[in-house]
Design a protein that fits this description.
13 helices; transmembrane helix; membrane
Length: 432
């Protein structure tokens, strides 16, 4: 069973939209940074430019997209209202963007003094949002949204762990040598909870609702929706604890706890691809292409994990496949469903004034969205190759990534411009 959408507590259009517009903007910044730094940004996962690039994508693009999606989805899908959604969105968005830019600058310039203010802004943004969502999620919700709400709760728990670990790392960077912290181990845990917990669990929870709804597929199997999210969260806890006790002969954390996590994600990817292959609409739209690319990328992460150890290229390639291939592809695909629908829905009230409202598929023409998908696919392939051949491919991949991000930005801006044109506001009013 799936819950029917409810728009009784639908937030203002610009509440989620300001976050969605940040997705291509920060992806463009990441592409420009890669274009500037070239192979130095992909030489090692520990490089200053690599860390700046990573956080522009994970905080500026992915986390912004997730926060915007939750502001929109919790009231509509689960019937859970967020108080003062418009004001909440403005404050969290400003803090998140400011903190992300300061953090990227701190990494890139290796300026310890920038880490404390960056972390204060990010803590204020993410912990305030986390607190409001936690209180809101205590509300009663429809049983049809139970699996999605459960995954969101677990994802928010992973966000809390990620933020704590990130704050400890920021302290270590701000005051090097003054805190007895195992920075390399904390960094791995921070990345694990941020990507496999916060980002991964929210994608899984959203997929339970939107794949059957927007892709017209069968529902996910009930045993999967009941068990997968909880199992993944518990497995991440076991993996985290084991890093302090299980080590191989070289002293590195043992890889054994990663295998069940890998198997769980591969199971999700396989089931999703199976559902997409049996969808009731045979012609694939751009969102379908993005979801397929995301699931193939997730499987690619597992394949790379099985390859012989490569201390430089392999970790970078897995990170690129997960962040750009899996998570960012999913975000792109979802934006092409969420944004046109929201614009169409918010324009319905102008019908009473005799204004013709375009259909959902006309808000962002599918042809333009498909072109942007192929630019994204090209960028992903080039980025993956750049993990092994950064000298030859890093800047070419940056150009492709920038072209894809700017294409997405143009398409989203076109939708907003359509909304502004068909629904002019009286002087002194605001949709924000």
């Amino acid at each position: 069973m799936q819950r029917a959408l409810s728009f009784d507590h639908n937030p203002p259009l610009m509440a989620p939209m300001r976050f969605f517009l940040s997705v291509p903007l920060f992806a463009t910044l990441a592409a420009l940074l890669l274009l500037w730094q070239g192979d130095a940004a992909l030489a090692t996962r520990w490089g200053p430019s690599t860390l700046a690039l990573t956080h522009l994508l994970t905080l500026g693009s992915l986390s912004a997209a997730i926060v915007g999606a939750l502001i929109q989805m919790l009231p509509v899908v689960a019937g859970i209202s967020l108080p003062n959604a418009g004001q909440l969105a403005r404050v969290v968005h400003g803090l998140l963007c400011g903190g992300t830019l300061l953090l990227a600058a701190a990494f890139l310039g290796q300026w310890p003094l920038l880490f404390p203010p960056a972390m204060l802004l990010l803590l204020a943004a993410l912990l305030s949002f986390l607190g409001i969502c936690t209180v809101a999620l205590w509300q009663q919700h429809s049983s049809g949204a139970a699996a999605t709400v459960a995954a969101i709760r677990l994802s928010l728990g992973a966000l809390g762990i990620t933020v704590v670990l990130g704050a400890l790392l920021a302290c270590a960077f701000a005051w090097p040598g003054h805190l007895p912290l195992r920075v390399l181990q904390l960094t791995d845990l921070h990345a694990m909870w941020g990507l496999l917990g916060w980002v991964g669990l929210i994608v899984i929870g959203v997929a339970y609702q939107v794949i059957p709804m927007f892709q017209v597929t069968e529902l996910y199997p009930k045993p999967l929706t009941r068990m997968l999210g909880t199992a993944l969260f518990l497995l991440l806890l076991v993996w985290s604890v084991s890093t302090g006790f299980l080590h191989d002969e070289a002293g590195r954390p043992h890889a054994a706890p990663a295998w069940p996590v890998l198997a769980a994600y591969l199971c999700f990817a396989g089931v999703t691809l199976y559902l997409l292959a049996r969808r009731k609409r045979p012609k694939a739209d751009p969102t379908t292409l993005f979801w397929r690319a995301a699931m193939v990328s997730l499987i690619g992460c597992g394949v790379l994990w099985l390859l012989p150890q490569d201390p430089l290229a392999k970790p970078l390639a897995i990170g690129l496949l997960f962040i750009v291939g899996f998570a960012y592809s999913t975000v792109n695909g979802m934006l092409y469903k969420i944004v046109p629908f929201l614009v169409w829905y918010h324009l319905q009230e102008v019908r009473v004034h005799g204004v013709t409202v375009p259909g959902v598929n006309q808000v962002i023409p599918q042809g333009r969205a498909t072109v942007q998908f192929w630019l994204h696919a090209l960028a992903l392939i080039l980025l993956l190759g750049a993990a092994w051949w950064p000298d030859a491919l890093a800047r070419v991949a940056a150009i492709a990534l920038a072209a894809s991000a700017l294409g997405l930005l143009f398409n989203l801006f076109t939708a907003i411009r359509l909304y502004r044109r068909l629904r002019p506001l009286p002087a002194g009013t605001s949709t924000c």
